[in-house]
Amino acid sequence: MLLNNRINREILKENLKHEQFSRRTITFYKYVNIIDPLELRNTLYQEWHHMNCFGRIYIAKEGINAQMSVPEHHLNKFLESLSKHHELKDVLVKYAVEDNGKSFYKLTIKVRQKIVADGLDEGSYDLSKTGTHLTPLEFHQNLDDPDTLVVDMRNHYESEVGKFVKAWCPEANTFKEAVQIVAAEFQHQKNKKLLLYCTGGIRCEKASAYLIHQGFENIFQLSGGIIEYAKRIKENDLPSKFIGKNFVFDERLRESITGEIISHCHQCGQSSDKHTNCANNDCHMLFIQCDVCREKYDGCCSDDCKNIKSLPTGERKKFKILRHGKYASSKIFNKIRSVNE
Fold first, then answer.
1. Number of folded domains that form the chain
2. Active site residue 278
3. Which of 53, 169, 198, 293 is catalytic?
4. DSSP class of residue 271?
5. What is the reported pTM?
6. What CATH number did the domain enclosing 80 receive?
7. Are 17 and 80 in the same domain?
8. Of the given ranges (74-78, 213-217, 264-268, 320-324), which has the lowest mean pLDDT?
9. Is the same domain home to 92 and 18?
């Protein structure tokens, strides 16, 4: 069998719309030594393809990182299959907070150098020396400690729509930027208790290892991330200290934790938490857009992109300069922010 998808994405999306069964969106990761990532990749593709699983999975010698959509009638079979691979045995599987079953429309498994692209120098962290893991309930209790610093290890476009109430959020576009900004910001408070969190926990593993390598002494991290926190808080009928939406890297783009909207449309400033990609595919920039501006700009991030989108295909090729923004920056949102500020 072919070990990758060859079907047009529009066809796949249409097929997903007409499925007559439910799906569950799950995530899991594990830092583990994988001797032959390509062999494992091909084996998993065959197994998961036969179960009609979709998702985005990265495999490297350092481990596996997966976000998936599994047919509900195959879920138990899928979970059983995980334990058959020693690399995946006892992996913590987390379930989406809000799930419409439309998170992914195809199965993609890629072999990468790292499961979290960190851009850091070799030897700048040791994954055998990470922070102390706190359960969601322990993390919840520690948030009230006035002597703790709560640090968001995600990118700014994630924390913009949702965060813990006491969180310090770095204005970062990449993981590398985030850890370096945090290390610099708190370099004179290395003995303070730092509570780290991210979406599912995977980035906190490397972030805590990096900060410990930098001399930080009291690093703690939320086990299972925001996803697991939201689940456990709800189970225990506790008020959530995470407000807003949890940004997710799939077709949903967000899942509501408290229902609050703490962010604003990047075009008009009205309350909105709807991330979208610019409808001009030569730009495709991720930004927040309210319904009014979506109609006004035809799903685009600017008048320029709206005008380019309306041109014939041949004419559009003249304008492939917008992906990095007019202001010579490749940073997500910077084009919109520069226009408005």
1. 3
2. no
3. 198
4. B
5. 0.83
6. 3.30.70.100
7. yes
8. 320-324
9. yes
